[in-house]
Protein 1
Amino acid sequence: MSRIAYVNGRYLPLAAASVNVEDRGYQFSDGVYEVCEVRDGRLVDERRHMARLKFSLSELRIAMPMSPASLSVVLHEVVRRNRVRWGIVYLQITRGVSRRDHAFPPAGTAPSIVVTARNLDLAGAEKMAGDGVAVISVPENRWERVDIKSVSLLPNVLAKQAAREQGAREAWFVDRDGRVTEGSSSNAWIVTRDGKVVTRQADHGILKGITRTVVLDALAAQGLKLEERAFTLEEAHAAREAFITSASQIVLPVVKIDGRPVGNGAPGLIASALRRDFHHYAELS
Ligand code: PMP
């Protein structure tokens, strides 16, 4: 079955789906994106993802290319046409096509929109969660507005590649004060020896993950102790548990940081329980 992409109003086979070479996403990474988990063919937390999309667009002064209702139809239709049961739907909106010039294009230039979807390997993901993953640390070298979900991801690409080359799943950015900000494509968490769950406060220095927001709801509902603050790499090394969250990975236990085992070196109880219960707190549409 050939995969189908939605590109500026048309559903096309992936091989025929393309954007203009003067698209500002291609030229300047002048655009934003969202990734939603798809579960049983339905979108997870669409409402929250669309709210964050609106925020990212408005921070960059890019117009929303269609009504939220139409966009929802397109997202579901791309999932349906690709027969995604468990996987992701990807949405990208850029400032559109215009002769290359750094400043904004003429008013009225239509934003470009692309939607794709694909299945993920559910069994593989569950195995990975059961084993836990390794992370490495890398210096934070991104701009100061990573709360905007921009497609400008070069530092994230390099960090992820460094992780891969060291046999790790993720790279954690560490700021100049030695504090972890977040992963290259996930939010970072630890559980301290005395059972407090810690994740960085959602300021401009991290992406306010939708999975993070839902996990905060789950923690509150379960009466677990939470501290929304930055934690250092030293604290992470001394932690009882660590984990990462993102829409495509849900909650993934971290068992090694920079080659050193976390806790007893096995996935933690809190992380594993959060992964198991996550969809109880998420919305399906
Ligand atoms: N931080 C970064 C840098 C990310 O790329 C992602 C994944 N998009 C996240 C955090 C997690 O966000 P979410 O839970 O919304 O997928």
Protein 2
Amino acid sequence: MRRASTLCSFAKGAPLRLLSTSSTRQGPQVCVVGAGPAGFYVTQHLVKTLPEANVDIYEKLPVPFGLVRFGVAPDHPEVKNVINTFTKTAQNPRVRFVGNVSLGKDLSLQELQRLYHAVILTYGAEHDKSLGIPGEDLGNILSARRFVGWYNGQPGDENLNPDLSTDTVAVLGQGNVALDVARVLLAPIDYLKSTDITAHSLEALSKSQVKRVMLIGRRGPVQAAFTIKELREMLKMEGCKSVFRQDDFKGVQEFLPSVARPRKRLTELLAQAALDPKAEWLEAWKTAERSFEPIFYRSPAAFLPSSSKAGTVGAVKLAVTELQGEMSETQGVKNTGAFEDVKCGLVLRSIGYKGLPADPDIPFDSKSGVVRNSKGRVEGLPGVYCGGWLGTGPVGVIVNTMGNAFELGRLIEGDIKDGTINATTAKPGYLEAAKILDNKGVQAVSFKDWEKIDQEEQNRGKAIDKPREKIVSVSEMLKVVAN
Ligand code: FAD
């Protein structure tokens, strides 16, 4: 139970003096916007180190966990174990999850600043980068972000309807997201059936005609951005062979002795797969009907229309590139002036994500797609912080986001303890926010409500031998909560 209605004095070295009123809450009032890993990890740190603080987590969707639910591939359930830690944090009596509430729509930044001592923005980087090249508006050129949302149940992506009647897909980009989408496209359907992949995508994938997935990158094998675990999965995938262009590996083996781990192990495995595959792989690849084809040193220059399906993509024009300067992991490339066209009937752009300002008062660097900040302190807005992908850009995995969020937590803890944030005047926090949301007719969703959705999804999954069947429509989630 929350102790409501108290004023507190929380200045440097001073003991807490607490005075109650009917509309304020005791201790530092903190709000977090965005219930992904960054939001949960920063909350975890603050409730651990500030015993008087309350943390309210506002989340746009009725369901928590951000990209752990909507990004992480369905066949990687072990990665989702972090949800157990987040659940413990959410169940702390000083933490309140408030789902179905969007910053910029249901609450403004100014309102949050008035209601809380500290406002922490961790609402991620949910938008697409585009290539800005001719033909990008042709049909069946999709962002990998939306394709992932389609198979992972992101509300709004359920009707993406990728046309899988083509035999060849070009994935543009060579990071782990690119490998995730390639794996989902090439995996045997029985392998996917036992995951929490959405029913609508499973149905479409079971009828898919896709036989070849090219993974196209501007740079070489030494600079590939995916990790070894994901590559191993592709090399061993049942019914799928890996096909490389041996020319892409010129000079790679000579360079290997100077490469540091873990890059060295990844490059060794790539070179082995391309130049001297294991006998067991070759044996399995003999009967494979599908193929995974990483292509290096190619940069998309234009999309060309299909001659058989009007208005849709039929090929990608690729500029041939070459590395500049000494070989290194971070080497840049330039175009050679030569081009190559590769035929395909579906393109998935996997060239990164970017954030957007959710509220006009957020200072934003639109070029890099991050909130303007210094080590997490938002420029020009004392008491407002940002973290996770919104603050750093869409880089790294959950463990990197965790490190960033804990660091941000320590910074805010310090600011509250040394009086940089003035927590001596009481603030109402959720007591007042609830009234604003009520007046606007917003149906806020609590963590207990989410647990109802969670249970319903698990029940639906059980009936069809899956760990869960995700509910993809927000209105249906709200109905489950209301029942
Ligand atoms: P997010 O996880 O995006 O969380 C942001 C939250 O803010 C979301 O819940 C969103 O709904 C909410 N939000 C957005 N706008 C608003 C608003 N206006 N008001 C309120 N709330 C809002 N890492 C791994 O370690 N392993 C993996 O296998 C892995 N797979 C990945 C697969 C994909 C496709 C992607 C894109 C990333 C993957 N990652 C993986 C990386 C990992 O997901 C990120 O490091 C991490 O999720 C970033 O956390 P975040 O909290 O900054 O952002």
Protein 3
Amino acid sequence: MCGIIAAASSRNVGKLLVQGLHRMEYRGYDSAGIALHQDEGVVHLRTLGKVKLLEEKMIQEKPRSKLGIAHTRWATHGEPSEINAHPHKSSERIYIVHNGIIENHVELKKELEEKGYAFTSQTDSELIAHLIELYLQDSSSFIDAIYKAKKRLEGAYAIAVLDYQDPNSIVVARHKSPLLIGLGTDENLAASDPLAIAQLTNEFIFLEDGDVARISSDSYEIFDTNQASVQRAITKLDITSQATSKGDYRHFMEKEIYEQPEAILNTIDGRVGAEDVLDNIFGLNSNELFSKVERIQIAACGTSLHAGRVAANWLSSIAGLPCQIDYASEYRYRNPYVDKNSLFITISQSGETADTLAALSYAKEQEYLATVGICNVPTSTLARESDFVLFTNAGPEIGVASTKAFTTQLAGLLLLTLSLAKARGLNPKLRTRVVEALRTLPEVIRDALKLKDQIIEMAPGVASKDNSLFLGRGIFYPVAKEGALKLKEISYIHAEAYPAGELKHGPLALIDEDMPVIALAPESEIAEKLISNLEEVKARGGKLYVFADPSVTMDVKAGRLIHLPKCDFLLTPIVYTIPLQILAYEVALLRGTDIDQPRNLAKSVTVE
Ligand code: M6R
């Protein structure tokens, strides 16, 4: 998704703005641009493609400026092109960068065109620059014009505005799209993502919806939704360069896969005792509230939704709670009936996914007991807007494909299940069993990571095909779905997941020697049935790649059977995810794709 960075400094800012854009590359984008204030005019540079192309333009132009805004764009309205890249301008005075979507852009554009403003792009963003210039004509101050323009905008936005007539400050505004200020030494910054400016400061101010702020090199001022001057809390955050660099790994995704033992440890650390989950780990009085819960509703997207589907199984078998799960993007469109004493749960790595936030805001209007978030980013909107939160503590996840976010979400959801079971007085022995298994989980994951060499050997068999099927049963069906999502998003191989029993009801027709079938066969009552399903695949020439419990034996012919380390069955969904992540990574490596920034995708999807 789009990224914004702005700086007002006592030194040259061109380089630091471009470095900030580089740090936001992981979010996914298609073009980049920058506007830098100089006395003789604004330097305005844009490129289609990677930030390094913009950097090359900067090297040729050699701008010198202490004030600037920059942007990476992920196309929503208008194709990826230089003309549609931000910053957009109105005359040679107002330059803006925008994240989000302006929903009433058609009518506003028409109105502005009728007033004589000429549009050069197909975006919904350019009109913001014209609108500000229009309102400047009858406003007492620049901030006043920003508020007048804001009143007209419907949708979501974070914007940064550079006014050629003001050589000292940048104005920023936020409405339903993340934006923060960074306080530096002899400089102040603004960005949509703290990682963009983490090398420059560890003091951040997270703006609230409706806020407008003016930053200059030695001061800043924030105004609330009513244009009154306000103070917002300064948050100290240490986002170390280690967390945001690849180290010796080839890709962030690879690093994040191998960080999982540590990440899981951080999720459970301080939250479980010797025999049980600790009280109130979701926040003060969460235990008391959990004792009233009779039903669960989950809403999430993508990988986070898969985590929710796994958890539904745990919630019913360990906490005795019925659980409904929805795609966050669909939830509010089905007029959901809310039963009494229902708990609403969202799951999100970023905490900024627009669909998930929209589902949360809809749920807050309904008769839920409370809202609970499982989230990796403590400073996110979701964290702020939920009644109770559990942070997964996985550390920054940079690769677009979620890996450690998923396994730590599962660990967090197990903690939620245990907390609910405890509050309801259910299954004390089972709770102790799960707590003990959770403690050994990092070690089991370490062992699962050692399967890498075996997986590298099987990767060419998948990388050479254009399609693949993933099979699992029961709680392993969502794990199979996660494996398929991982493979398709980074290798561009078409991958579908099925509950193995469904094969004979249609998908079996697809099986031939060009259809690798990746199956999950943990030891359980379902493994035996799954093996019969796999025999059906083998009999039709399908090549089998089976991840299985050491007790499972079967002839996979030219395929491969890989045994996973033993662990408590309840935790196997977490462990079986590991080889699927490694497989997707190794296949994508063979296919030479852009693993950390796969085509068309964004890390944090901040538009609905
Ligand atoms: O930040 P979130 O967990 O809310 O993101 C949800 C999805 O966009 C995300 O999980 C997406 O599916 C990942 N790219 C999958 O690897």
